[in-house]
Amino acid sequence: MPQNSGFPFLCNFGFTPQLSTTHQLLRVVEHINEGKNSNLATAAIFLDIAKALDKVWIEGLIHKLIAYKFPQYIIEIIQSYLTNRHFTVLVKNSDSTPRKLQAGVPQGGILAPIIFVLYMNDITQVRNIMISLDADDTAILSQGKTSDKAIVPLQNYLKNLEAWLVRWKIKLNVDKTEVILFNKKNDDWPKVKVYGTPIEWKKEVKYLGVVLDKQLNFRAHTSLIKISDMDSTAENAVYPKIKYRIEEGHDLCVEPPELVIFSIPSDENRYI
Fold first, then answer.
1. Which residues pair with 80 in a beta bridge?
2. How many CB atoms lie within 10 A of CB 116?
3. Measured between alpha carbons, how far apart are the two ends of the chain, in Å?
4. What is the DSSP letter of 182?
5. Which of 240, 239, 206 is nearest to 224 (CA)?
6. Where is the Reverse transcriptase domain (predicted)?
7. Is residue 103 exposed (0-12), middle (13-18) or buried (19+ Cβ within 10 Å)?
8. Which pLDDT tens digit goes with each residue over 222-255?
């Protein structure tokens, strides 16, 4: 990254050296837990970006690279890499007329993940709103002393975010967007809206491979890792499977309630 550049905060942990999905997940869980310890409610929305790599606006990307003060030769290399690409469709052993690709980055290419991080990294940022990006998995969190005071700033932020998304030609799958309120109550709170569409509150969501429930006690996630019908000779076969299936949650270093630990059958618990 060029020194003294206009490059903004690095909030995207996906495809980033020394940062991983686990780090981003830990960051989110710690933020929610810190809120709980301070008697704050946390409202979180999990966005789904439609065809993330296929829809990167090339002209917009070049504009951002210039704003980030990248060297001209790097900008020209990336521009050459992304422009003048064509595709054809094979139908019954016949190729269609070549068509020019107007957007997107080559999936599977070594530069594709880096380009996507650069494209997303100037996402709208405001005070008291936490943004969590891991590749195209996006979580936005707001906290407040009451649920209302957590929801209102989140909704206000989403209005600003919508304008940013439109400007940079990024589309959301609204039907795959989820919201959850991390608190102890089950009251009927006002629905958060995305592009005018109300989003139903969820009791649990899955983020980066781990199920987060509104109490953040990991009961729902624990239920996914139970292994049944295990005989007395299964230790060598079972341990790697358990380790693999709970690895992401285990790495969070968050101690779940005793009730959750006890919910794992004792024969399985002893292998963890």
1. none
2. 22
3. 41
4. E
5. 206
6. 1-212
7. middle
8. 776 654 444 444 545 544 544 445 555 555 555 5
